[in-house]
Design a protein that fits this description.
By secondary structure, the protein is an alpha/beta fold. Helix content is about 45%, strand content about 20%. It has three domains: about 90 residues, Double Stranded RNA Binding Domain, CATH 3.30.160; about 40 residues; about 325 residues, tm_1862 like domain (pyruvate-formate lyase- activating enzyme, Alpha-Beta Horseshoe).
């Protein structure tokens, strides 16, 4: 699919919107060309109008609108025209209309602050052409998020700790992680250096008078570490940071096959009060298809063990749209999580990232799968609402089946604070570990400065001194 851009800077949104309709196509953006080559999307900004032309097969449609003074409005109008043409061509309305960004709730919150809730919701439906169901979901989520965001102060920050190791790579995974089978020799030196980075980060946070709100261990799978290694890293956090203001301490123990009694004891003794144990599905056939090296029985064992050791805020992830899954299979998985009484149930939609094994093995998206995933999310929303859960955070990704969304659902008061803080970009996130990205938030503005750690464990270890030098950027940011 060719995308032609003439005299405008709308290519990013145009490309993302086109990808929503053609997730499996290679998109080529051109500005310098003699004549368009079908199939194509063409967006032109002329002195007094915006023209959008879509030519695919026998379909050839053009829409025109008058140019406005505000360039942001011009970009929005160009996308609206493109959306209408793609919808006419395909006969398919996107659930989120012409929205393509990761954070639709943040957009809604901005509109509410500017226009009030009623007008903002109307703009979501009418201008951005978001469906009624998704508008209602966004409204509920925004209200839950706002209650959490209100906890943050000007001096607040959260801490992210990355453990980029897993027992094996899941077929849908595109995160920067390493199979512990292949990188076992890197784990111990990684742990040693991570503890050093944590201590230096804590020193900087203390010198700046920052207030710690939440801690989140992600990955990878943090519980891939041994109990002793886990205890060392968790202990370093507790010893180095001022934990007196910390409202939440989360560790992703996502893979049930990594959970043991001694690791749960370490988590508990180190004040971890929220964990994730993620089945993704309770179908062993589906688990095998996606490369999860555990069974549903392993999940049930791990969940029961966590309850035995006193964990009363457990998240469980499910994924809608997995290969070999069905609507009935997904319903059974969700009903099982409810029967277990999981305080958090995060419902993801399968995302076909280019780096995942599923994509590289030739797996594609189609309309039938999109409808099944939509039905799964619909069942989840109805059932979780009936059971007293609320949607407390939501985000989207490119190449999601059905162009849908990921939603964190929780019982009242059990939502993950860190998830909201990081998704809303509420305050500074100080991040440690390979692949971690520190996000420095300037209070009172939307300005964010990012400080990147090296992606891979071998880089993190080999260039650690260089990484530590980058920590000075935190001090410079707050002293500017």
């Amino acid at each position: 699919m060719n995308i032609y851009i003439i005299d405008n800077s709308y290519h990013y949104e145009v490309e993302n919107l086109t990808r929503a309709y053609f997730p499996n196509e290679k998109l080529t953006v051109s500005r310098d060309f003699s004549s368009p080559c079908a199939p194509y999307v063409l967006v032109q900004r002329a002195p007094d109008l915006i023209l959008v032309n879509v030519c695919i097969g026998e379909f050839n449609g053009t829409l025109i609108t008058e140019l406005r003074e505000d360039e942001g409005e011009n970009e929005l109008e160009a996308c609206r025209l493109l959306y209408r043409l793609l919808r006419e061509f395909s006969g398919l309305s996107q659930p989120w209309g012409l929205l393509t960004g990761v954070r639709p709730i943040k957009l809604l919150r901005t509109l509410i602050e500017e226009q009030g809730r009623e007008e903002a919701l109307a703009r979501f439906r009418e201008t951005y052409e978001v469906s009624g169901a998704k508008t209602a979901l966004a409204d509920r989520t925004e209200q839950a998020e706002s209650r959490i965001i209100a906890l943050s102060r000007p001096e607040s920050y959260s801490l992210y700790v990355g453990i980029p190791f897993c027992p094996s790579r899941c077929a849908y995974c595109s995160f920067v992680m390493s199979s512990v089978e292949q990188t076992k020799k890197l784990v111990e030196p990684y742990v040693e250096l991570l503890c050093r980075e944590l201590r230096e980060t804590a020193r900087i946070a203390s010198s700046l008078g920052l207030r710690l709100e939440s801690v989140y261990f992600g990955g990878g799978t943090p519980t891939t570490l041994s109990a002793e290694q886990l205890d060392r890293v968790l202990g370093t956090v507790n010893e180095s940071f001022d934990m007196s203001t910390c409202r939440e301490f989360t560790v992703e123990a996502g893979r049930p096959d990594t959970i043991t009694a001694d690791k749960l004891i370490s988590l508990k003794e180190n004040k971890v009060d929220r964990i994730s144990i993620n089945p993704q599905t309770v179908s062993d056939e589906v688990l095998e298809a996606i490369g999860r090296r555990h069974t549903s029985e392993d999940f049930f064992r791990a969940f029961a063990l966590a309850r035995e050791y006193g964990f009363d805020n457990i998240n469980t992830d499910l994924i809608a749209g997995l290969p070999k899954d069905s609507l009935q299979g997904f319903m059974r998985s969700l009903d099982t999580m409810l029967d277990l009484g999981a305080e958090n149930i995060t419902v993801h939609t399968l995302c076909m990232k280019r780096a995942s094994n599923l994509t590289q093995d030739g797996k594609t998206l189609n309309r039938e799968e999109a409808q099944t995933a939509a039905d799964m999310l619909g069942y989840a929303a109805r059932t979780l609402t009936e059971k007293g859960y609320e949607p407390y955070y939501l985000y989207r990704q490119t190449r999601m089946v059905g162009n849908l969304e990921n939603v964190g659902w929780s019982l009242p008061g059990k939502g993950c604070l860190y998830n909201v803080f990081v998704m809303d970009e509420t305050h500074t996130i100080l991040s440690c570990g390979a692949g971690a990205v520190t996000k420095l938030r300037e209070y009172g503005t939307n300005y964010l400065k990012r400080v990147f750690n090296f992606k891979y464990p071998y880089e993190y270890i080999g260039r650690f001194d260089e990484l530590m030098e980058r920590k000075n950027e935190i001090l410079r940011f707050y002293h500017q």
